[in-house]
């Protein structure tokens, strides 16, 4: 009887407490990192990551499905591009009483790691002429996500001890070349969960003194769309782009989440909420000061507008008839990226290969205001510094002198390659002095490191 009374009393107070748990789940960090820009995950290809994500005007590998789908018209034949990101880092906290704790991403690196897979095809190159210069593709990415873990006996353990959001995005895409200098792209963004990613649902946990541990979990599917444009007003004598302008619009959508509220492992009630995913508008320009038969040098600048002002509050509806709301009042932000790539197309030191060196920088302010800040979204203004390298074997090249990697008589791949990148994300120290939850007041210092790898095969 005592246990039943405790559960009933807790269900009544859930209308006040549950939104904090849900608000925590609606956090971000690369699907394995507490990256700024709330819970948007920007690194979706190692070639772009090595340039600080300044890639939407270049978009010349299959990750264009994410960065600028209109760029798919630049790709030949059909191609596969797949990779993953190893994300590690810490969130250090100290309050005015001198209490210190350190959070992480569930371990030394986030598991499951944020990963991606892209498949693209230029239909004319495949002998399908009925649709004109049409390219198609599909991508699997972790565009939004989160993993975070804190000690169960920490000063804000009643707010959050862990949270996970292993969200999967499915991106069917088409791109069409209207003119030699204009292409457009259209695609869907299908946000869902999969059993092979973590637990296959979101979850947020915390420790409640005198009561025990509780958990909110759930899943759902939402559908959004994207539209993109690539304009090439200037080309080289060989017909390659020398100046590109990219534009991408990703529409705002809502992800419905349905799941359970559990107390000490026992279900107390069903819970429903909605996770708003913001509109994102990207403008980008790329210029190649050098682009000839031997070398290519690109400079690019991208700017994202992210409409986080759609995250005003989170309403949680319980199966016992209760409804709770917690304010968010997030702000829309701009994220700036600048990057460069220098490529050797026919180096004497590696015949038959292309070699690229990359570097970049990205800057963003946090959309999360002080009063509604939560450690689940331990967000702050940040700076990312990136470096990368790319190797593409084609023509008369060979893999370690053992096998040719150009197109063979048996119809093998026309090229194979690998892209590597490393990013260091430095969050500016953030002191929370006024907050609706006093236990989270204190100083937060966050640092993340992201190692990215992608493999490319072109047929």
Describe this entry's structure for a reader:
The chain is mainly β and 459 residues long. The chain has one domain (2-458): Beta Barrel (Porin), CATH 2.40.160. Helices cover 7% and strands 52% of the residues. The chain contains three helices and 26 strands. The strands form three sheets. A 14-stranded antiparallel beta barrel has the order 1-3-4-7-8-11-12-15-16-19-20-21-24-26. The relative contact order is 0.19. Residues 1-34 have low confidence and may be disordered.
Order of helices and strands: HHHEEEEEEEEEEEEEEEEEEEEEEEEEE
Instruction: Strand order, main sheet: write it out.
Output: 1-3-4-7-8-11-12-15-16-19-20-21-24-26
Largest sheet: 14 strands, antiparallel, barrel
Radius of gyration: 24 Å
CATH class: Mainly Beta
Strand content: over 45%
- Secondary-structure class: mainly beta
Oligomer: single chain
Shape verdict: elongated
CATH superfamily placement: Outer membrane protein transport protein (OMPP1/FadL/TodX)
Distance between the termini: 68 Å
| Number of H/I helices | 3
Unreliable stretches = 1-34
**Domain unit count:** 1
* Total number of strands: 26
Keywords:
single chain; mainly beta; 14-stranded antiparallel β-barrel; 26 strands
